[in-house]
Amino acid sequence: MTWAKRIYIIASVFLLGVLGVTHSWAAAQEFPVPPPPFTEGIFPCSQCHASMETNRKKRELKEEHTKITMHHAETMRWCLDCHDAKNRDKLRLFNGELINFTESHRLCGECHGNLYRDWRAGIHGKRTGSFAGTGKRTYLLCAHCHDPHEPKFKKVIPEPPPFRPTDRRELK
Amino acid sequence: MIDKNFTRREFIRNLSVTALAGLSVPFLSSCTKEEAEDFLQKHFLEMTEEEKKQVISKLEQRYLEKYGRKFQISTKEALPETLWGYGLELSRCIGCRRCVYACAQENNNSRYARMLHWIRVLRLKRGNLINLENSEHYYTPETVPEKGFIYLPVQCQQCQNPPCVKACPIHATWQEPDGIVVVDYNWCIGCRYCIAACPYKGRVFNWSEPNLPKDEVNPDVHYLGNRPRMKCAVEKCTFCIQRVRQGRYPACVEICPTGSRKFGNLLDPKSEIRYIIERKRVFRLREDINTESKFYYFFES
After folding, report:
1. Which chain A residues contact residue B143 at CB under 8 A?
2. Contact A146, A36 (CB under 8 A)
3. pTM, two decimal places
4. Fewer CB atoms inside 10 Å of the end CB: C or N, chain B?
5. pLDDT tens digits, residue range B77-129?
6. What is the phi/psi pair of residue B156, to 5°?
7. Dihedral over Cα of B274, B155, B109, B46: its sign
């Protein structure tokens, strides 16, 4: 092998590496999401589940996760449709791909395609921080607003109404 | 005396003496030197950089004394190639009024003995959207959203053809190059013509000395935006000018718990607001009166 060839090969390997790193960095930056909204101390799930036997039967959970109520097409869904049975720290797409909880929008998007399209454009959902420039930006995941097990919004207490001209309550 | 004919020379002499007396009133009368300086302060758009700096340092000193906090008063100018636009999704707004209070917090509005709000959330019967006359903004249910109602938050619509600016007799309010209508509170005389001219009730007036507690002050302010105001100044939403000129979302966008509020640059084809205008069913309030507002309401489609 001539020197020129060797240099060429080394250079191309180096360039490929650089491209790969920047690509993965760009992918991580595409949706800068905050940490998923876990109940404190519950993650990683494998800290309990690793020593447990997998029971695929659909049943009422009586010992653990009793606070989870399922109102999300519950007649045709069960925990292991979204959570992976073998690796409990991951979620599972239809095609079997395992994803992290920080990418859970991909799982939601498999059914809710039109909302996912809007979410990616920043229309559905919420973004905070900077929309331009170099400042920090945060895109909330679906699960930050919708409980994945019970996605419908709950009613909230409104803030007090504005001052009425005839109202004396604010005058001290 | 009356019959006496003035020569031209005498007339001019008398006139100049009168003018001098008039000019010296602020200095010789009972007001202090500081008040006299305020009285003679120039219009913001006519100030040189040097004069702006002087005014800023004077204001910072005054706020430090009044609120005990070091203020950062920005005079950052409009960014090139920007025209700000706002989007609000009506099918998602639940009328919780979080935006109203986050806005007051961010913009140093008067708090007690009349809290001033820049956002007004209207409640309308479902299917009755156009009749704004039948709206209610004092609603107080236990929980929201209520069945059979929709909520329509209204604030300054940042018109491209603003009636308030035309009504102002002294040019104390004007439109910035990035489309934001601002007020120079020091120049405003409090005549409230702009309030009468605004078809959206987007402006509010400080009838009394604003009441802002020291511990609730937001010290990151803009001269034309959220710096603490004085009595008899008209104020309004500026799309959080102090935030958007740094590329940050307005406070109401960040607080909204349902993500109904969207913001972006109308001149940038990749911005969120352009996505909404191109793909959603949008409308603007009172389009028929040709205010060309830059506040787009839209529905999920």
Report:
1. 155-158
2. no
3. 0.83
4. N
5. 999 999 999 999 999 999 999 999 999 999 999 987 678 999 999 999 988 76
6. -55, 130
7. positive
